[in-house]
Amino acid sequence: MTAPDPPQASRHDVHRAIDAVWRIESARVVAGLVRMVRDIDLAEELAQDALVSALERWPRDGVPDNPGAWLMATAKHRAIDRLRRGKLLQRKHEQLAHELEDEQSDAAARAESARDAELDGGIGDDLLRLLFIACHPLLSTEAQVALTLRLLGGLTTAEIARAFLVPEATIAQRIVRAKRTLAQARVPFEVPRGEQLDARLGAVLAVLYLVFNEGYAATAGDDWMRPQLCEEAMRLGRILAGLMPRTAEVHGLLALMEIQASRIHARTGPAGEPVLLLDQDRARWDRLLIRRGLAALERAQQLGGGAGPYALQAAIAACHARALAPGDTDWPRIAALYAALARLAPSPVVELNRAVAVSMASGPAAGLAIVEAIAADPVLQAYHLLPSVRADLLAKLGRSDEARAEFARAAALARNARERELLLGRAAACD
């Protein structure tokens, strides 16, 4: 007798659960498969096959107790089948089958992890291994970051394009070409050592920061944040800090992420609506993360890296973290730190942030002057925070009609549903 189809509502719930699980687990699944099959395209294909299988079976059988392990086991079974169909070496068949059997035993899995750690110079982590592979010097910096965000961040091509402020087609081309380059060069799937490790660090830090930012303020979708991405970026950042304890910018980035993450619980209201920085209940800020972040910032400064780009941004975040109330914020210092960051790494986005700090330190007119100076920059034309900041400054100057129009323009450019609602609400408040 055929079992009846589950009710539509429950099917919908299961599909939402699958989507959530995939967001969290896809990077681990792909990273584990890459270690096995030594082919990024094949690993992604096998991971997608496992997702399709989940979409077929979970609505009927229910979501398993450990969905991530289910996805990985399914993908690995498919990997073994694919390799057998391809008539590869029997030794490889036995290796993969043995690995699958090992993972069914906790003791064997721990032993395998220890062996991997020894072979990789102390790093027994598939995600970190894949991170450095994707940041291979054969690839341009832009391609390194785009590929790693796709593989480890689980971000769509559209989300990555938003992070880069470039067309989606450009990012798609970068990812395809990057994978092709790695495959043609037969890049070994291992963690680099020595000078090669140092050479790839800049791209790795950029990747972690963009992954964190996507979690901290999601570019699209119905949720204001995706905290699991913040957690993953911080986890990898802590591993990097352990691997490179005397590299200042690693500690600077870790400090920045941990101080920013301390605000996560205060950044949304009861219904998931965004709560802006100056309106947040600072009692809800995570003091442990703040202490950890300040300690990492101090470490970066002790190592002589206090003027690095991530350490400067961490110092800005620290100004907010140390202020028990919004009125206690040292805005002149924040403006000065943004000016130093603009000299070190010129960017219209940095200038936009400096405009906000200057407006708080010296008045909205001073901030608006900076905004107007960069308003025509092509990089900012599709960036919703440009009209959003301009609208806020116009509202403070009493120019309500102009402010309302700018808030509406910002809402039209925003792709995150929560952020769009916030901007539309601020436009309505101008009346």
UniProtKB/TrEMBL annotation:
Chain ranges of the RNA polymerase sigma factor 70 region 4 type domain: 131-182
The record places domain DUF6596 at: 200-300
Residue stretches making up the RNA polymerase sigma-70 region domain: 28-86
Under the heading SUPFAM superfamilies, the entry gives: Sigma2 domain of RNA polymerase sigma factors (SSF88946), Sigma3 and sigma4 domains of RNA polymerase sigma factors (SSF88659)
- Name of the featured protein: Sigma-70 family RNA polymerase sigma factor
